[in-house]
Design goal:
- The protein is mainly alpha-helical.
- The chain has one domain (3-330): Na+/H+ antiporter like fold (Up-down Bundle).
- It has helices at residues 3-15, 18-31, 40-63, 67-92, 100-111, 115-128, 140-162, 170-178, 181-195, 199-227, 236-265, 269-280, 287-294, 300-330.
Length: 332
């Protein structure tokens, strides 16, 4: 495999996807001085609908799974999300000139999951005839929510320490974070998908609107990213280097934990590959609006730029690597 050519091809393909195209379109409008504005209440409404849809879909998928089969992979997913954010925070905090909130938000996106990368990996596994459990895609909220929550908690702990006063209480911060609009919507969708029967409204209402709402969201993110691009120019090389290497490091972590789950519960080789893919990916749907709402001080040009422009193509490029590794480890 010619890695430079494959990477450029993947990057060109990503530039044509609606999410990234609208993100770049928003940046172009802002650069040209456009007066286009999307009111903040409209933005918040879009975020709520998108995150409700993601939560509902995950809850519906988990509802039909055997909890005994799901437990070990779910715990591994949650541990991965938290570990990736903490590792990224420790790495990025060592570079002078990086704003702490930008580094934490970037680590948060890389700890969370890209639904589009996961979908692409599933298509590749299906094409190769590699089986995986039907509920494996529903693992992503177990990685996604802990990762985003960890990033929010790290920022809140830092803010409270700078403000002085008593030592911040982790339990209080977790409760405050979960009451935030973005995570509340995601968690509510997950619970409703599990305990209710929202399948008709999910299929008839949320799914048809998803792509259009996502494009508007990325347009808003693009305009805001351009407005704050000047803050990023001094340290852009650090984010680029992080985004190029993180998918490989995180994917190895995911593959290793997936293999341990395989030994403990018989987790399928295809499931191990998908866990590695989720760990290697960085969020392109749930993460940006959640962090924009919860960490408004962070610059979207840093965390969205690193994740969507570099991290997503690299994560897609690593999918054949995890498949090849699984074929070598499991000999199938």
């Amino acid at each position: 495999m010619d890695l430079p050519i494959d990477f450029l091809s993947t990057l060109a393909s990503q530039l044509r996807t609606p999410a990234l195209a609208f993100l770049l379109g928003g940046m172009a409008l802002a650069a040209l001085g456009s007066r286009l504005e999307i009111p903040e209440p409209v933005y918040r409404f879009i975020v709520v609908l998108l995150l409700l849809k993601i939560g509902l879909g995950a809850g519906i998928a988990i509802r039909d799974a055997d909890p005994r089969d799901l437990l070990a992979p779910a715990l591994a997913s949650a541990g991965l999300g938290i570990a990736i954010v903490v590792l990224g925070w420790l790495v990025l905090s060592r570079f002078p000139g990086l704003r702490p909130d930008d580094g934490v938000a970037t680590a948060g996106l890389f700890g969370a999951v890209s639904a589009s990368t996961l979908a692409a990996a599933m298509i590749m596994l299906d094409a190769d005839g590699i089986a995986y459990e039907a509920w494996v895609p529903a693992l992503y909220p177990f990685m996604d929510i802990p990762a985003l929550l960890t990033a929010i908690i790290l920022v809140q702990i830092s803010a409270r320490r700078k403000g002085g006063g008593r030592r911040p209480m982790i339990g209080m911060i977790v409760a405050d974070s979960l009451r935030g609009a973005a995570l509340s919507a995601l968690a509510l969708g997950l619970v409703l998908g599990l305990v209710a029967r929202p399948d008709p409204v999910f299929t008839d209402f949320y799914e048809p609107m998803f792509a259009g709402l996502l494009s508007l969201l990325m347009l808003i993110m693009g305009m805001e990213a351009w407005a704050r691009l000047a803050e990023l120019r001094r340290v852009a090389h650090v984010y680029a280097a992080y985004a190029l290497t993180a998918p490989f490091v995180h994917g190895v972590m995911g593959f290793g934990l997936g293999y341990l789950a395989h030994l403990a519960t018989g987790f399928s080789p295809g499931g191990v590959v998908l866990l590695a893919v989720m760990a290697a990916s960085s969020s392109d749907i749930s993460g940006p609006p959640t962090l924009r709402a919860a960490i408004p001080s962070a610059n979207p040009a840093a965390y969205v730029g690193a994740s969507t422009s570099v991290g997503t193509p690299m994560a897609l490029l690593t999918v054949p690597l995890w498949i090849a590794l699984a074929e070598w480890v499991f000999v199938f």
